[in-house]
Amino acid sequence: MNKYAFIIDVGKCENCNNCFLACKDEHCDNDWPGYSRPQPLHGHRWMNILKKERGVFPLIDVAYLPKPCFHCDDAPCVSAGRGGLRKREDGIVIVDSAKACGNRDLVSACPHGALWWNEEEKMVQKCTFCAHLLDDGWQVPRCVQACPTGALSIFRGSDETLREKIVEQELQPPPDSQNRGGSPRCFYRNLQRYTSCFLAGSVGVEQDGVEECGVGARVVLKKENEVVAEQLCDEFGDFRFDGLAPGSGEYLLEISYNGKVMKSGPIRLSASRSAGTFVFSS
Amino acid sequence: MQTLLRTVMRTHTGFSSRCLKTALKTLPAMARLKTWRDPEVKNRLRQRDMTALISVRDIGLKILLCCRGGTVTASESQGEKTEIEIIFNDAATVWQLVFARNDHLTILNAMKNFRVEVRGADEKVIWFIQTLSHLAGLQKEVEYGTKMGGGVVRYVNNTNGGPVFVYVRNGKIVRITPIEFDDRDGRSWTITARGRSFTPPRRGTVNPYVFGLRSLIYSKDRLLYPMKRVDFDPRGDRNPQNRGISSYERVSWDEALDIVAAEIKRVKREHGPGAILNSCGSHHTWGNIGYWLSAKTRFMNSIGSSQVVHNPDSWEGWYWGAVHHWGNSIRNGASDTYGTVEDCLKEAEMIVFWSSDPESTSGVYGAFEGTVRRQWAKSLGIRMVHIDPFYNHTAALLGGKWIAPRPDTGNAMALAIAWVWITEDLYDKEYVAERTTGFAKWRDYVLGVTDGTAKTPEWQEPETGVPGRVVRSLARQWGSRKTYLSPGGLAGFGGACRCATGIEWARSMVCLMAMQGLGKPGVNLGCLQQGAPVDTHFYFPGYAEGGLSGDLDNTGLRVSMYQRMVQLPSMNPVSQLVPRMRIPEAILGEEITGYPTDPKSIEGQFRKFGYPAPGHSPIRLYYKYGGSHFGTMGDSNRYVRAYRSERLEFVVNQSIWFEGEAKFADILLPACTNFERWDIGETANSGGYSHHQFIQWNHRIVTMQHKCIEPLGESRSDYQIFLDLANRLGLGNLFSEAMTELDWCRRLFDASDLPTRVSWKDFVKKGYYVVPAPAEQNRAPVSWRWFAEGREKDVPELAPLPADYAEKWRKGLQTQSGKLEFESSSLKRFDPDDPERPPLPSYIPSWEGHHVKELYEKYPLNLVSPHPRYSFHTMFDGKDSIINDVREHRTLIDGYYYWIVRINSVDARERGIADNTLVRMYNDRGAVILAAQVTDRVPPKTVISAEGSAVYDPVGEPGHSADRGGCVNLLTSSRNIISRSHSTPSNSCLVQIQPWSSGDVS
């Protein structure tokens, strides 16, 4: 049986909101009998784009995490829904408008925050994977069609093929989704852009009375006297150790240039940060 | 046919006369036949009863045509009085016109030489002529759209943000999507670079706001009926002081149109020429026929009105500055960018984005077409550097070094880069020697030989806040790698060109490229946003080519279309000009000086003009089109206050939505969107100042813009509204040439190259045509390559004008020397001692920046107001659209959607501001209430809040209180960048920010 899943590349999302808005274009003021009642004009985020800004001026970056309904296998909402939500054979989870009506408690049935209460319709609503379109011959849902960067895509195939793809492409489940219940059918590439943190900094070198960028300065990152990583500063004298776990404790930096060494730390890494600028005097 | 025509015309008058009489008398039989076969003709004839006299003077023929109850009768006239008369000078003309059919030149020549004249009410004449056209079989109902099953029809339309499919069921729009090509659509191009092949996806992209359209079309803020301000009485109290305060009442179209027509006549009678002013935004709903440069221009010319001169607000520094060093006046000082996608992918090693965020601004009309090309560049390892006070969305997507200068200091860094190149021998000396003039003088200025100040990286540090070492490193990388410079999202735009130092910044960008050998492989302008290898030899006009305007002076009509689409010319007899940035002062009757946006030559901008023009009336009647100015013009409380002046006797606003300054009109005329009328237009093809703008797109997509639904409520198309007014002013026939909008679309189709590729029938049915990519050998050459190699110009643009070449046509640049000029000869001629704009690009600190001590102490934050990402200026913003829900556009707090301002975490902490704190941003010009977004994407002391709020919502008296709609331009200066210009310095704006308490209306 071919089943659907979302595959989302965090490295390609630029928060253009085309997915979020195309979803609204499809569902606000449109009734798709058998699939969904109209989404309210405002308030719902069936495709919810979360933002993570990392670092301190001027060494920062920004990542976005588009978050639709994960269409979980063993979905907690389906088990809690008393028929208000159902799992289709193709993996898509759909709200049954008749049976879900009036049950406000269902909103909390989703541990991932993908259910939204429609006050007018008196029912929960969520991303339908645009099942009404797929059943009508469309190849992809509206959000994927609208995505200009290739960040959003879908998978259609057997669970076995999906498992292979996950391993092969190092796809990750949604952050913090484990142990919350359900097995999400939504996987991410480059998720570390959103979940990990970095320690960055800049190196300057005084030469001939002016400060130059510490191009090629060696920076060693240590934790409990063990070398975690090392790198050479780039042409702007910047370094950045990425992929560190937030709250992963205290780090030390050892920076060397032309035989001179500077040390910094301990640096407690609760979130991405800059260690500042290290200037080697002549 | 021609032979037959000539035979009949030459034949003896008696024979001709008999033939004519017979022909005219067979009209009723023809009508009967037509009504039997064609229900549309039948319905049309039933629309009204009418009597018409057709006379042919030379043969004394007079035939009376009666149309009653859907039946036509013909008889010889016995001198009855008829509603309309059509008078032919001679029988030969009748025959000529009978056979002319769609030969508009023949028809117009007959009209101009009075060989045919019409009398009677315009509206009736137009109906009669269109009915004759139906009888002659010239009007065939067009079949259009694609049936998708389930009662859904898919139509096509077009927008600022890309072409779209429009799904309609039961007369209502169900969805709007991007266009995906099918196998029959024109082929795509492929670029081979560094061993890889790149082909764009077979689709069009769209901007986010395009998905907001359905919610905007059906918005609760749509104007559905003509409205009158309740306390406006054209015959009694007008109460101008209540504009922006009083409510409106619904009136009939007849009442509204009668009032507007009567007011137009009254002010002309009472005040004379010049009393009518029309103004509109720079952009409009898409389409060449309905565009403001088309229908509106033709109408305003027809009634005679003072013209608003648009400052070149996208280009400012380029138009007033860069043009003096490299010419390119026709592009307002921006550069052409042909062939640069291929050259950049093949050759470039680095791209410097300077004040350039194409992922937000889409160049202009470019949707996300450039995104995939920049992703290719990234995958090829081309380095990227982003110079911008905001860590913008392009930087966030692509990565690379972010360098954040203090706003409004741009060319200090540019001079320091030049200093490094000069002192470290990192520039192209041979190119400088052969292709440029004046370098030695500029070099001496940069080195400090002339003024004692060496423009070192350390010198620029206190100006820009960027460490000298970073600038030194940037200069070395740039000077030793083949580098593309993208000043602005389009080469020749950028927020840095719209500030007090903007002219000097743009000039210094030209100088930097001149030092690096502009045009050599991999050394050019752009960021892959422009320069796709699409077919530039296939002709379809851009909107700035004037549509049906008939205006050779103020549109690009004379470039191609005056020969291709014959039409009645329209000339405005009123020569009075009003600088757009001075509309409030003009309304208040003040004396004003202005400088024109005249891209014909480098010197066009020097021609100073005054207001009021000699012998002209000051403005008394304001015909406003839409509601944009409060959210887009500088110090816009001025505009609010001007509306409420007694000197302004009448304000009419023709608007789709009840928004912004539309709420300050006396009469509101509800216009419909382009989804409710016919039009035709090519994606991103603006023509005019941005020749071949469509090279931003991966495919050229020409669209028939289907009338997808009927106009909502009683709204009407702009064309129809102008025609309704023109009919009341006895101008209807001249305005319309008795043609419908669909007729005009057909005329424009015929005037383009489309008929060589696709039939009208097929084009209308499918709704779009993808121009196939040209053979590789027919791709446009790379811009500037010819110049770098000392050849004659070979890129496909007509400009500059032949007379602007010193040597011969297409030899050298438009500058006096024909070379890139470090020291500008045009500025030396104009005023060599101008301290604001000296002939050498220099560092002149901002007049509203950190050097202005007292002001800076009071207002220590630099506000940058870039183009918004999720709306197109004021278009698509507000109006209860789904765009309001985009977190980085507006924020919902206590039930209200506030415009956002980004503030650095340090500045926020000092002021007790957190995410979503409502803040009051203010200076001496006004105050705006905004929602804070605390971020390190901006440096300390810099705040970012986009221009373009469509909502003006004063918390107290309009023009004198804080606005919580988000019009940050209430705070920006109305001063010109330099006094001898007409230019907005919107990014030179010092402000203070504090938390807002809701009782504070100041």
TrEMBL record, chain A:
Which Gene Ontology terms cover its molecular function?
4 iron, 4 sulfur cluster binding; metal ion binding
Say yes or no: keyword Iron present. Answer: yes
Q: What is this protein called?
A: Fe-S-cluster-containing dehydrogenase component
Q: Which SUPFAM superfamilies match?
A: 4Fe-4S ferredoxins (SSF54862), Cna protein B-type domain (SSF49478)
The 4Fe-4S ferredoxin-type domain covers which part of the protein? 61-153
The family database entries (InterPro entries) matched by this protein are listed as: 4Fe4S_Fe-S-bd (IPR017896), ET_IronSulfur_Cluster-Binding (IPR050954), Ig-like_fold (IPR013783)
UniProt entry keywords in alphabetical sequence? 4Fe-4S, Iron, Iron-sulfur, Metal-binding
- Which PANTHER family does the entry link to? PROTEIN NRFC, PROTEIN NRFC HOMOLOG
Taxonomic superkingdom: Bacteria
* Database matches in Pfam families: Fer4_11
Gene3D superfamilies named among the record's database cross-references: 3.30.70.20, Immunoglobulins
User: Is Phosphoprotein tagged as a keyword?
Assistant: no
Automatic annotation (TrEMBL), chain B:
Indicate the segments annotated as coiled coil, or none if absent.
none
Pfam families reported in the protein's UniProt record:
AhtL-like_1st, Molybdopterin, Molydop_binding
Which GO biological process annotations does it have? anaerobic respiration
Domain named Molybdopterin dinucleotide-binding is located at 862-989
Gene Ontology MF annotations:
electron transfer activity; molybdenum ion binding; molybdopterin cofactor binding; oxidoreductase activity
Give a yes or no for keyword Metal-binding in this entry. yes
Q: Does the keyword Repressor apply?
A: no
**Which InterPro entries does this one have?**
AhtL-like_N (IPR049032), Asp_de-COase-like_dom_sf (IPR009010), MoPterin_dinucl-bd_dom (IPR006657), Mopterin_OxRdtase (IPR006656), Prok_Mopterin_Oxidored (IPR050612)
Please indicate which superkingdom the organism of origin belongs to: Bacteria
Q: Which GO terms describe its cellular component?
A: outer membrane-bounded periplasmic space
Swiss-Prot/TrEMBL keywords: Metal-binding, Molybdenum, Oxidoreductase
Which intervals hold domain Pyrogallol hydroxytransferase large subunit-like N-terminal?
A: 162-216
Q: Where is the Molybdopterin oxidoreductase domain?
A: 222-728
Q: Which cofactor does it need?
A: Mo-bis(molybdopterin guanine dinucleotide)
Family of the protein in this entry: Belongs to the prokaryotic molybdopterin-containing oxidoreductase family.
| Name this polypeptide is given | Trimethylamine-N-oxide reductase (Cytochrome c)
- Annotated organism of origin: Desulforhopalus singaporensis
